[in-house]
Design a protein that fits this description.
single chain, mainly alpha
Amino acid sequence: MSHVRTLSDRGPSISRQRCVAFLCAAFGVFVTVLYVAGQNNAGADLREQAVIEYRLGHYPQAEHLLNRVLEAAQQTGNEYDIALIYSALANTYQEEMRFQEAEQLYRKSISILLRKPEASLVLAIAWRNLASALTAETDYPGALAALDRASKLVEEKRLVDAKLNAEILNGQGIVYFHQGRLGRAKTYLARAAQIIPASMEQGDLSVEDVLNNLARVYQNSGESRKAEQTYKHALELTEMRLGPSHPNVALTLTNLGNLCIELKRYKEAESYFRRSLQILTQPETVTNEYRLMEALYQLGKTYMKENDPSRAEPMLRRASDIARRNENQPFWIPEILNVLDDYEAVLRNRSNSEDADLLHAEAQRIRAAAAFTVRVR
């Protein structure tokens, strides 16, 4: 279950650094590694509980249970079990955006699996999942190298797995997008959309995920008509598969809203963002704070484009509150700074210079901390 599956960043006018912040909708999910082989019924029960907690989005609980399973596996010395549990824990870290920790565990898992010739499929999955962590850390050369290892392993061992092939292609398309190699990104994402199985398990990469990515590339290429058609196709498929109120629908709605801002169709953008927020704030929905912050921020920006700071201010204030709660998430930093900067501008527009100055100082502190953060491999 790796985290980076879709792109959902801004338009062509946004810098490369800012684009990085929107990898967080996840790319490629593998539930199978949670079903590791066990030595006793108690261990099997713990694994089953970990799967349940993971699917419910209770990642700390899943992590706790997996650590208990890991302790048991280490006592028996079963290397294969240990490798699988490392991967499962890394998947959990990915969901919590703890990408460096995820990377380290994927590498430990891979180092064991490399000694297990019979585990080619699991090893290919681990390489692909490592690539997602590296992509989230903006280590694009490393991500491409990991995806290449996964692709070559699939070819050499003649592994027949359309889902894995689609996820590798999708991952390569995402990396090429963030490197600005849009032609290659289109090629790989189009191939992924063609081969991905129509029937997928819950949480897996879906055709609509890939279409969202492909639409994002069209958008950055200035092909607005193709981008809108592809987003709407993705929206239709998601609604048919999951229903009109599923949280995954909100991602495409936000993407469509962003496109409408670029096209200066602000009333349409407002409609998309409002519907996205309605879905994300349903009482029964597990809160995805990143997507919620993004939708609030973009709706606030839409109001500013419409010269309505009084409506923009509460949206940006709510987005700012989420940003401040998550300033310790390195992956969020570019978007957090954008939220705080735009909220500061609204406060100054409304003659609230005191709060604007405080916000400016806070943003500068976060920038300084981010500038001195060194990635540890």
